[in-house]
Amino acid sequence: FWQILVWDTFDLMKLDYVPSQTAHIACKYSDRWKSGTKVLCKETRPFVCKEIINTTQEAVGRFHIKDNKETNSFSVDIKNLTEADSGIYWCLSGKNEFVATELSEASHCRKESLAVGRFLKSKKNNMT
């Protein structure tokens, strides 16, 4: 599990989807994290999220990840979407680099502000 700490404000991208279709989550990172492992996790409660997939894997179930080091970005496709896929996903690419995307069933995209901060990896048995 990952825990978000040291609060700040930044934009939360809202991404709407159609059930049974595929959602595409795009994540940017700086040059210094080019060689590091990138992670997508899903928020389980405010500012705590569970890792879904990382760039050492190609696919986990319906989740497929690609790291494009030329554009300093990685992306995750979630196939065959269901209502259970709704929620906030965090792209983690370095000690102080993260992006949040809220995935929900709707008809358009918009941005809102959300208080967030750094993430730190927590021990699984401490986070329930």
TrEMBL record:
Domain of life according to the entry: Eukaryota
Any single GO molecular-function term of the entry would be: transmembrane signaling receptor activity
The record's keywords, sorted A to Z, are:
Membrane, Transmembrane
Write out the GO cellular component annotations. plasma membrane
Identify the main location: membrane
As for subcellular location, the record says: Membrane
Q: Which residues form the Immunoglobulin V-set domain?
A: 18-97
Q: Kindly give the PANTHER family that the UniProt entry links to this protein.
A: CMRF35-LIKE MOLECULE 3-RELATED, POLYMERIC-IMMUNOGLOBULIN RECEPTOR
Query: What is the designated name of this protein?
Result: Immunoglobulin V-set domain-containing protein
Q: Which organism is it from?
A: Kryptolebias marmoratus
Ranked from the top, the taxonomy reads: Eukaryota, Metazoa, Chordata, Craniata, Vertebrata
